[in-house]
Amino acid sequence: MAHVLNPEQTESNPLTTETATPTLEAPAEQSEPSAETTPTPEAHASETAPKQQHDEQHHEEPDLSMEDFAAALESFDREQAAEAAAQAFDDSAIVSGTVIKLTDKHVVVDVGMKSEGLIPIEQVLDHTGTPKLNPGDTVEVVIEREEPEGGYLLGYEKAQRLRVWDTVEKAHNEKTAITGTVVGRVKGGLTVDIGIKAFLPGSQLELRPVRNLDAWIGQPIQVRVIKLNKKRGNVVVSRKEILEEEQTERRSHTLEHLEEGAVLTGTVKNLTDYGAFVDLGGIDGLLHITDMSWGRLTHPRDLVNVADEIQVKVLKFDKEKQRVSLGFKQLTPDPWLDAAERYPIGARVRGRVLSVTDYGAFVELEQGIEGLVHVSEMTWSKRMKHPSKLVKPGDEVETVILAVNPADRRISLGMKQLLDNPWEHLADKYPTGATVEGRVRNLTDFGAFIEIEDGIDGLVHVSNLSWTKRVKHPSEVLKKGEKVRAVVLGVEPENRRLSLGIKQLQPDVWETFFAQHRVGDVVKGKVLRTAQFGAFVEIAEGVEGLCHVSEATDAHGAPAKLEQGQELDFKIIRMNPEEKKVALSLRAVSGDEASRADVEAYKQPVSSSTTTLGDLVNWKREK
């Protein structure tokens, strides 16, 4: 009957609140007049109903007709309330309606008026963008105004505010917490649904600034109302106030039990390059990276992550500044205390390469214990340019303990000790005097390194390159990469040294010279260079002698001027085979002693068959 009555009631001209009031209030004042007034609307309804409905209703029982009448009366009351609210545009009056349908922009609601009401769709969306209403749902709204193009603008959020305002106002006055859901992000903060939409400033969300506000959308949270304006319908809430109170309470409880040496449970709040901040319950402590592990950590995240719950030991507590220093590794014994017993020298151990540097590789033997394999202890070969050519981080390697120093927390490791030492039997393989062949690996100012086999280099000193040439740099006679032969001069396995010589492949010109000449011999020489004290003279290939200025005079005792390139006869006056030195004299050749030429001339045959000593003296005087 409600649907039958509604059209005529809304079309009656005019149907005002004044005419409706006696009809509605009569049943409330006395019961007898109500019996008289009931036929009027029933008869009115029977007259206006279509004839085809009469056939359907004449079979109904009398009590069902009364139910229809009651429903029609209720609908009539609802229409009058809605009409009155619409005429007065009282946005504080709540009316109920039925959702007819949903469009892209509105929720169409039947509020029992001559036109349908429209709720903006954004007022009924949850945080996921899904409408909270469906066709057929009963909804409470306020009528805000009549639209010029027809229909009424309805307020869903305003009706919600009116319903929950008392609760919100009470929570504000008593400073109690309210549970709400974050439904969206707005400029400067978030929107929280607490029955009505409230504004949560971004600065009031956490104790510390929050960068990603979007991550909170859809999360249920507890907030406190800190500001409200009933006239404008504005509500501002804070979560930070609740957290600060909780923090203060936890801090008081924590400070009661906080002392150096205490073991507490905390939550990792933040990570930095130098450590982690741990919330102990209202007060934060710093867990420095050096106190995280007995071993090496490149970053705190290698051990802990934000939100991890860990046990820590209080190392230091400054009550005045409320600064707490924490330790994690102190919960376990220091592994270096008995490292010398657990890692004896010579023991073979396996470990994982942590890092590689220019001077070696660090190997972790266990948590908190690591050793260094120096580059010189990696291989017997000298050709390795960088440790990374042999190992890389993460490799599992076998090593030998070379030294342990618990005080300095150092262990020296070796890898080449696991291989045969080629120097141990090198003297047997390459005895002194043996001829070897190799390739020039490197040239230095003092000599050339020649590799005769993998890992074995020998040094040819610059003095052992040539008998005859004065070599200033090995590059004058050798080239890098050149294949050469040499003679083994000596082997020192303990020092890993092998001495080689190239000039030894040829006979020693000095030995030959000393074997063929004696003091007093006159030799032909060529002045190579001069100095203040004398001149150096080449008297044989590769053999030099010195003519001192005191011996460089002519037959009359006058100083002889020696110039580079001059070729003269010199007499050997001294020889030192050990030091390879020869002293020469020009004066002895041109002085009182007979020259070699005179002697040779004297030896020539003459007409007389006999020669006396007097003849020889007279010959000398004539000369």
Radius of gyration: 58 Å
- What class do helices, strands and sheet pairing give? alpha+beta
Q: On the 0-100 scale, what is the average pLDDT?
A: 80
Q: What strand order characterises the main sheet?
A: 1-2-3-5-4
The major beta sheet can be summarized as: 5 strands, mixed, barrel
Question: Globular, elongated, flat, extended or rod-shaped: what is the shape?
Answer: rod-shaped
Q: CATH class of the largest domain, please?
A: Mainly Beta
In helices, the fraction of residues equals 10-25%
Assign the CATH architecture of the largest domain.
Beta Barrel
Poorly predicted runs are 1-64, 592-597, 606-614, 619-623
**Any idea what the CATH superfamily of the largest domain is called?**
Nucleic acid-binding proteins
Task: Give an overview of the whole structure.
This protein has 623 residues and is an alpha+beta fold. The chain folds into five domains: 2-156, OB fold (Dihydrolipoamide Acetyltransferase, E2P), CATH 2.40.50; 258-331, OB fold (Dihydrolipoamide Acetyltransferase, E2P) (Beta Barrel); 339-408, Beta Barrel (OB fold (Dihydrolipoamide Acetyltransferase, E2P)); 426-505, Nucleic acid-binding proteins (OB fold (Dihydrolipoamide Acetyltransferase, E2P)), CATH 2.40.50; 516-592, Nucleic acid-binding proteins (OB fold (Dihydrolipoamide Acetyltransferase, E2P), Beta Barrel), CATH 2.40.50.140. It is built from 14 helices and 30 strands. The strands form six sheets. A five-stranded mixed beta barrel has the order 1-2-3-5-4. The chain has a five-stranded antiparallel beta sheet with strand order 8-7-6-9-10. The chain has a five-stranded mixed β-barrel with strand order 11-12-13-15-14. A hairpin with a 4-residue loop joins strand 19 and strand 20 (410-414). It is rod-shaped. Residues 1-64, 592-597, 606-614 and 619-623 have low confidence and may be disordered.
